[in-house]
Amino acid sequence: MLSRHHFGLFGCAVAVALLTLTGCSNSTDPAASSGSAAATDSATVAPDRPTADAAAAAADATSESSGSTGAQPSDEPTKNDFLAAAQRGVIVADSSPSKDDAPPFVSTPDNPGPKEPLFSDPPAPEPGVDRAWREKWVTNFEKAKAIALAEKKDILMNFTGSDWCGWCIRLGREVFQHAEFADYAQKNFVLLELDFPRGFELEESLQKQNDALQAQFAVEGFPSILLTDAQGRAYAQTGYQAGGPNLYIEHLETLKGFRETRDAAFAEAEKLAGAEKAKKLDEGLAALQPSLMFASYPETVDQIIALDADGSAGLKKKYESARAEFQFSQRMQAIVAQANETGDWDAVLADLDKVITDYAAFDELVVQAQMLQLQVLRIAKRADDLIKVADQLLADKSLEREMRLQVYVNKLRTLDEADRTEEALPVIDAMLTDFADQTELRINLLMTKARFLARLGQKDAAKATIQKVRESADPSMLSQIDEYEKDILAESEKPAAESSK
User: CB 118: neighbour CB atoms within 10 A?
Assistant: First the structure.
């Protein structure tokens, strides 16, 4: 949380309520409302100082009003959650209170899903239900592959939170424990359970295996059901589906069709060479869900790139870019984990520098890494380094508008926190030029500029700036603007009065 004076234009009864610098907070920092220890890690701007929060709040509001579905400009990052927006999030069930059965039926530890009876507290017995169904699932991946190879079956991997995940428990109750599913699975799959319980601990080797598979397949929510061949190459991913065992079986049969398409294309590819073989391999991968490509088929990707070495088929560039994005994401995830675990900002920044060097040929990835640099540099309080990175980003005229606004806000806040007010004024002027069409943002920026000018003793300039606000504001807000003007001008007199005593 950057400050208790972080306000938004939406959700307040009157937009210029933020001019009073009190009330109507719209901070998105979970630590701000939870009172967690993370909240104490955040720097807080003293309330008697002019701040850049009004502009930051308007930045948040501008992003909200633009309809962007990406990450919103965040409050000051903390040690524990500074890169939440950069991490790959999990879309959970509809947050509206009316339904708990809206797709996509994904549970996370913070959002466990619907409340269901635990396996230790099952409902009354039903005909055709096997209460001991979990005991029939394999838990060792290598064993599952050996059985699948010997019996010519595929593997159904169930990533689950057996004692807390509502959708997992519902899937077990509605599908897995029924005789129809058991009969179908017996003929088609080796069943592999990969559990992530919260109320008890697995043996260490099993936990390491499950963690490794979760990382390999980028599983972010539970239940995640993966279908793989006997080699462990995933060809489909799904989760909870309503309707009971028979409908779920139909769903799995549809997913098995992905493998049939893959296998047919791969078989045809073996008869070809060069770019034609690359095209057929590409056809096989295109039948699969994109998220599975690098988890299960890195060798196939390498082969396609090598076969289309001259780029004549257009596949070399396609797969090199996709592979770079995947590897970049993996490295960024590792950096995030390191940062949250150790708080060693020097090491984090060194790793980011290396990432930027390694992916210099991919402009969009470099920008993502630089945006993370800004977050880390603010925590480390390295104002000069942050300003250098911010200026590099702002020099790129192709930088997306939402991202550009975030860079400006980071730079403005950093200069304010470092008491470099004179340097902050040109930043505000640049924002006013770049976002001249955003009325709410313009008002907030002008008010911030007026306060900065008053802080520097430039009262006439501050008054002139507030007059510009009056020209843009609704008439109903004029009395509040007058009060704000009195407030900042009175603050500008305090140092002189105190020094004369």
Answer: 12
Decide: 75 and 27 in contact? Cβ < 8 Å.
yes
Kindly tell me the number of DSSP H helices and DSSP E strands found in the chain. 20, 4
- In which element (H, E) is residue 350 found? helix 345-358
Encoded amino acid at 329, one letter: S
Long-range contacts (CB closer than 8 Å, 24 or more residues apart) made by 267-274:
273/307, 274/307
Cα torsion through 83, 85, 87, 92, rounded to 10: 140
Band of residue 291 on the pLDDT scale cut at 50, 70, 90: confident
Which is more confident, 358 or 334? 358
Would you place residue 125 in the very low, low, confident or very high pLDDT band (cuts 50, 70, 90)? low
CA distances 240 to 2, 88, 103, 117, 135, Å, are: 39, 21, 9, 16, 20
H, E, C per residue of 415-456: HHHCCCHHHHHHHHHHHHHHCCCCHHHHHHHHHHHHHHHHHC
CA distance 469 to 171: 57
Helix (H) or strand (E) holding 358: helix 345-358
Using CA atoms, how far residue 378 sits from 299, 387, 418, in Å, is 40, 10, 11
Closest to 445 (Cα-Cα) out of 460, 428, 421, 457? 428
| Bridge partner residues of 191 (DSSP) | 156
Each residue of 238-257: pLDDT tens digit? 999 989 999 999 999 999 99
Q: What contacts 293, CB < 8 A, 6 or more positions away?
A: 285, 301, 322, 326
pTM for the predicted model, two decimal places: 0.67
| 3-class DSSP assignment, residue 223 | coil
- The pair of three-digit structure tokens given for residue 333, joined into one six-digit string: 């995830």
In this structure, which long-range contacts are made by residues 381-386, counting pairs with CB atoms below 8 Å and at least 24 apart in sequence? 381/43, 381/417, 383/414, 383/415, 383/417, 383/418, 383/420, 386/410, 386/411, 386/414
CA distances from 236 to 35, 155, 263 (A): 41, 11, 13
Task: Identify the structural domains of the chain with CATH numbers, from first to last.
Answer: 133-269 (3.40.30.10), 318-499 (1.25.40.10)
79-88 mean pLDDT: 28
Cβ atoms of 381 and 387 within 8 Å: the answer is no
CA-to-CA distance for 481 and 486, rounded, in angstroms?
9
CA terminus-to-terminus distance, the chain: 37
Find tokens 């950096």 and name the residue: 335
Q: What is the pLDDT of residue 189?
A: 98
Comparing 65-74, 81-90, 279-288, which segment has the lowest mean pLDDT? 81-90
Cα R_g (the chain), whole angstroms: 28
